[in-house]
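Summary for the funding panel

The consortium committed to producing paired sequence-structure records for every protein in the target list. Below we show the first two records in order, beginning with the earlier of the two.
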Amino acid sequence: MRFARIVKERSSNTELGALLAEIDWASRPGVPGAPKTIIFGSDGPKPDLVLADAVDNDIQIVRNAEHCLIYDRPIDAEAGLSFQMLVDWWAAAHSTAVTKPANDLHRRLLQGQNEPERALFNAYAAVLKDHGFGLPALIPQVYLHYDPETVDQRNRTSGKALTRQRMDFLMLLPGRRRVVIELDGQSHYTDEQGAPSPRRYAEMMAEDRRLRLVGYEVFRFGGHEFIDLEAGKELAVGFFTDLLRCYGVLPKRG
């Protein structure tokens, strides 16, 4: 590896440079912790959670359970969470009511998504169709932080609302790597009246930095890229394919 870097520094070999960049990317450390509970697929009011057993991290939803999903099976941090694992979990929970669990799960996960998010989600479904359900799952509307109060309530009391409580999409890749994908609409950089908001934009960037420092990767799409939904979907297919190649989940181009 050291010899290859010396050769790169002394030559203009672009293929060698690209290969070293891919190796560096794939070898970066992931998030040290192990995922235990994933609250996702939110399509309505925030769920009201309680810790039924704080020692064992036993989470129960006491209100609005119908508006979200909880994946509580053991997750091997080194292996990540594949779409097939998500399908198996869904099939076990709906064994008598679902004949095509993958299709049924896909329809459920589309709930709560806006049109650009659906285009991005369907783009990844096309990648799964081509390469199999063993690829990492693209998990929508995932709670990263949780505060029982709303942002407005927290701001009125302590003024310390948690930023970005919910992620647009999360992927748990092999090797403890966690990828956050955000699709930014106007609300990400404007206030409630639609005026530019440097404060809101700065909060978003600060949270991105914090996530990266603890091992997450954050990728953002601009809503403008999905004005044409079909073009946005095609763009997203290319992005996901390149992303999975960079992480070594899909083979490199021959």
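The next record, for a separate protein in the list, is shown here:
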Amino acid sequence: MAITLTQLTSFLAVVRGGSITTAADALVVTQPSVSAALAALNRELGVELLERAGRSVRLSAAGEAFAPYAADVVGLLEEGRDAARGAAQGAEGRLRIAAVTTAAESFVPPLMKAFVGCRDELELVLDVGNRAAVLEAVLDHRADVAIAGQPPTDGRLEALPLMDNEIVLVTAPDDPLAGTAPASAGQLHGRAWLLREKASGTRALNERYLAAAGLEPSTLTLGSNGAIKQGARAGLGVSLISRAAVQVELESGWLGTIALAQPPATRRWWVLRSAVGPIRPAVIEFMDFASHALVGDAS
């Protein structure tokens, strides 16, 4: 089998971009070169990895099965290159951390500062995104470790629990229900609900709660925790969000909370890594450090 790195990177670029045009732009090559690489890869495998979907393309059943392997191969080669260069230079290199927005806006930066300590030769890089983007970054080996609010269900990921992730319903500080006895679902009827963007774990949490409570409110989608907080403070609606994301606003009185008679279960933060390929010492050290540094809040 003579599969090349060019074929794999072209295939993955098409998968991520949804079209040959987008893939060619991302790789800074011509569209015919991407098409040729895909055709050669199909011939090597003896299957068609992509199929037409209007003006775009999508994975075939064979492509769905092959894509994780392609991502692992390309990602591990990139990791191997960084490891080799670091060893040649006598340095620890980089530790690439991906974190969901809520974690990145609260406890992750202090955790990074505490971890790096005297490790002057270790460069920490933080990439922030929603849950889907963060998990994809680790699965594709574009991030060494990640911090998210739900344990992964993919067997290609390994995770350790961190501290508790308490969820609160935020609202304007002068809301009549703020600071009162726990409210029933019926008392929230007619309230507008503020939601994060699609693929956000926080959005999924809100949608699950609304479905379980039998509520079908009007919703407003806001693309960040900051916008959610400002919207709640202005009285645009309410939203379930991690207490870690709003601790400062709650302590300052800029936001209020509505206690719920049937609140969502307290979750945990997780630190995770790919279970595929060699494990760099820095990855092991960070995961161990994080799980112990935050263990006091994980009971």
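Regarding this second record: The mean pLDDT is 90. The domain at 91-164+268-297 is CATH 3.40.190.10 (D-Maltodextrin-Binding Protein; domain 2).
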